[in-house]
Amino acid sequence: MDVLFLFPVKEHHEQRLKEEFPDVNFLFDRKPDDAAALETSEVIVTYGADLDEAHIEKAKGLKWLMVASAGLEQLPQDAIARRDLTVTNVRGIHKTPMAESILAHILSYKRGLKKIYEQQARAEWNKKIGGKEVRGSNALILGPGAIGGEAGRLLQAFGVKTYGCNRSGRKADYMDEMLSFDGLLEALPGMDFVVSVLPSTPETRGLLKKEHFGAMKDTAVFLNFGRGDLYEEQDLINALNEGRPAAAVLDVFDIEPLPEDHPFWGMDNVTVSPHASSLSGKYVDRSLDIFIPNMKLWLAGKPEEMENLINTERGY
Prior knowledge:
This protein is of the alpha/beta class. It folds into two domains: 2-92 and 281-305, NAD(P)-binding Rossmann-like Domain (Rossmann fold); 95-272, NAD(P)-binding Rossmann-like Domain (Rossmann fold), CATH 3.40.50. It has eleven helices and twelve strands. It has a seven-stranded parallel β-sheet with strand order 8-7-6-9-10-11-12, covered by helices on one side. The protein has a five-stranded parallel β-sheet with strand order 2-1-3-4-5. Helix 5 (95-110) crosses helix 7 (146-157). The model has no long low-confidence stretch (mean pLDDT 95).
């Protein structure tokens, strides 16, 4: 069996895989235009953005697509659905670095770290940095899954009350209260932090409208660590200029890299993060921690028991 990796892995990762699966032929660090490798591989491991519909059609032997990413919106989903392929992702591996990033930005904002850094650059001694406590705040987490739940756990440890919001309002870990998307507009005026870790799906694209931003407190902070198509960027720009919310921390954007002339770069109440919140140096290790058990189940003829199976029609 050929297993094709479309992104580079380190030597110790290759060795780990060969030791676990001595009878599998791994094709490491190939490109999707490697026609021979594409055609013979039963399993393809990819970040997702490098495959298009033509590649899927050429991959005659493909049965399982392992996506080393949580989001699937960059994949040719119609072509994948037509082939009835098994698709898995690495949902959950981002939870530690992303939750820590969310907490870091919240603490930085509340404790005035940006102002402290700016004062240091000017050799200025000034205690009036406007630092406030996080304890006693309310945080609304859009998408309280693995990442949102871990963010909720950390925030609760700091005395923050957590509200989870998903499509159905069903219970989620580390959320003090739950609501559905239908109750979102009503809940926003009571929130100090609004954090999105939502994926890009038909239900979430364009979910936030200008009325949602307008309903936020004039002291609230909006943080988007999910996907950039959650709202129209101009709506957020207008809302920030009007003072509701007070500030935004953005790790994802409609167009990436963010264009040099984009207004976000010049806005004092916006923190631009280069889609880096999930980085920690452990990405591939954690991806393999999901891939290896799934590969064992695949070889045993038990694909239905694999972790992180994706419904290709829903996209998650």
